[in-house]
Amino acid sequence: MSSEMYNNAKALYKTIGIDTDEVLKKLGNVSISMHCWQGDDVGGFESNEALSGGIQATGNYPGKASTPEELMSDIDKVLSLVPGKHRINLHASYAFYDGEKVSRDKLEPQHFDKWIEFAKERDLGLDINPTLFSHPLASDGLTLSHPDENIRRFWIEHCKAIRKIGAYIGEKLGKTCLNNIWIPDGYKENPADRLSPRARLKASLDEIFSVEYDKKYLVDSVESKVFGIGVESYTVGSHEFYMNYAAKNGCMCLLDNGHYHPTESVADKIPSMLLFSDKVALHVTRGVRWDSDHVVAFNDELQDIAREIVRCDALDRVLIGLDYFDASINRIAAWVIGMRNMQKALLAAMLVPHTQLAELQNKGDFTAMFALSEEYKNYPMSVVWDYFCEINGVPVREAWLDEVRKYEKEVLNERK
Ligand code: RNT
Ligand code: ZN
Asked: Which residue in the list 115, 155, 182, 385 is annotated as catalytic?
């Protein structure tokens, strides 16, 4: 790409008070937590237990990673096509078992040493999630809220083990690890008692979080949901439940934008959350009808979320992670598309003079506020994006797709 194009765009943005060089520096510092589970349809390394817990990966595109080495190689491919330095989001089910069978409540830090090594070599951060699904003890759709004390205890011990592992990861990497708890618990039919399962979940969380870790190494979030497949009538861990829990107990809320009613806007929730908590975590995804986990597209919803983060000046207070799993297209491409879209949305948000628009709002000049917001949408953001890819040494525009096709031919198609 000619730097002339970039310089022209830079000059144009300067007329509305935006310094594109500064913007690119800022964008280069945003690290996104990339979910490892897009690579193998949330399979994990533990067993061949089918995916359960109200979530489903549909499709059977060839080339799925089925060993840790394959998954790591796929992640490397993705990272070579995405600008910037990022984080990898792991699930407990991606522990290295080395042939032995380790019960989830007995997982130890060393089961993640290979991931730590992987991250260290590449200067990446790591995040972690306990896995409370795809397991015989989660087969009736209840975990931390289970009325059976033994089952509930098993899952409490699992979450405790994962927090210990998260703190270890954070310390080893010298980068804070986010531990996010999501549970599938709920009922297909309207329950006779909505209170007791939530009381049990609350008691479980209290016990899990009773162990304190240095916040430099481990921070915690709790993720709500509105419904899942097979648990349509009642979700124990609802938004209100976790928002109150987080506010009272000093952990973070994690907002997954696929987990709300279709007309509810997660973008709109961000400023409210930020007024009451230091940080908020996100799972950025795309809901389509029953599925909350389609590949992230560059749509209005994504741009609204990015805009809110940027204009709240909260890039260091909003922990951005992706969460989707599509098995119907090349999985590497699915990852790259989502990561690059998230970055493009942040860039688009950074290329708008928010202070100027806010002043117009405060003056009551809604005509100008609206007119200018619409005009700014047509400024040459794509030129700035191309330049960003170029200076970060990753393929510009759709050139990344050829790399994925080559990898598919040479690597993915060779897999059984
Ligand atoms: C499920 C939640 C949860 C999972 C991952 C695999 O609805 O979004 O975050 O997608 O933990
Ligand atoms: Zn999620």
From this structure: 182
